[in-house]
Amino acid sequence: MHGPTSHTYFSQRLRLHYVDWGNPDGPPMILIHGGRDHCRNWDWVAEQFGDEYHIIAPDLRGHGDSQWMLGGSYSQIDYVYDIAQLLQQKQMTPVTIIGHSLGGSISLLYTALHPDSVHKLVSIEGMGPPPAMIKELFNKSMPERLHIWMDNLRNLSGRLVRRYASLEEAFQRMQTENPQLTEAQARHLTIHGSNQNEDGTYSWKFDNYVRSFPPTGISMEETWQMFNNITCPTLLVRGLDSWASDPVADGRTKHFNCPLQIETFADAGHWVHHDQLDLFVDKVREFLRD
């Protein structure tokens, strides 16, 4: 597989990493990965669109080859700021965005805050937790939510980084946890998503603290309201075998006033762009062509 070039940039004093697939004369496209993932999870998608677009794919803070932050919480607005910094520094707007999961949420919020900077938007399962789960959390008082957050941070502080005796063992773990991946996909994601430790073992690149989200800040209801600001054509993608709820059935799509398209993929879980790559690429190419 032909690979991209590796680069760094700075945001809020953190050294962050991104890859660039070349073709600088093409219209800009950014690919934003999900939680506990990394930029090289997009390699198959980037290969499909690299001849048409100038594609970059960042490692979010605390992920991949980007620096880990000091402190206990990775907030969504900090991720959004990092993306805004990268696109501003690279002068890559208006841009086409494809984001997955956490990256899809970041993409939606970035677009809501910078509607003139986005040409088209694809969000794969990026609407966040189902409303029922959010309602259950926010039925708790603020002191209760703060105590849950504190307890979670204490647990994370004592959580040892998992070490695998070999890259093959890490690969087996990747395949077990993601059974819909092909062997080639799982091996590729393992190679690019792990580091070798000084003792020869292997560990995943992401910071365990990315599992913690602060109990304060922008609420989901406020975020959904901001989706009204999105003006570009937007494609929401969902896998039928995923844990994510249907944004049409649960009413979240009512917050959009932009041209909105929904695509649901059978035989696909949360990682639609892995589970149904060819169909996904066809649908996205059709959406981008319109």
Key words describing this protein structure:
Rossmann fold, 36% helix, alpha/beta, globular, 290 residues
Descriptive overview:
The protein is an alpha/beta fold and 290 residues long. The protein has one domain (5-131, 213-289): Rossmann fold (3-Layer(aba) Sandwich). It is 36% helix and 19% strand. It is built from ten helices and ten strands. Strands 1-2-4-3-5-6-9-10 form an eight-stranded mixed β-sheet, sandwiched between helices. A two-stranded antiparallel sheet has the order 7-8. A hairpin with a 2-residue loop joins strand 1 (5-11) and strand 2. The chain is globular.
How many structural domains? Answer: 1
The CATH superfamily name is Alpha/Beta hydrolase fold, catalytic domain
CATH topology tier name: Rossmann fold
The total count of helices amounts to: 10
Please provide a brief summary of the model.
By secondary structure, the chain is of the alpha/beta class. 36% of the residues lie in helices and 19% in strands. The strands form two sheets. Strands 1-2-4-3-5-6-9-10 form an eight-stranded mixed beta sheet, with helices on both faces.
List the helices and strands and how they pair.
Layout: E1 5-11, E2 14-20, E3 28-32, H1 43-49, E4 54-58, H2 76-90, E5 95-100, H3 102-113, E6 118-124, H4 131-138, H5 142-157, H6 167-177, H7 183-193, E7 194-196, E8 202-204, H8 220-226, E9 234-239, E10 260-265, H9 272-275, H10 277-289
Parallel strand pairs: 3-4, 3-5, 5-6, 6-9, 9-10
Antiparallel strand pairs: 1-2, 2-4, 7-8
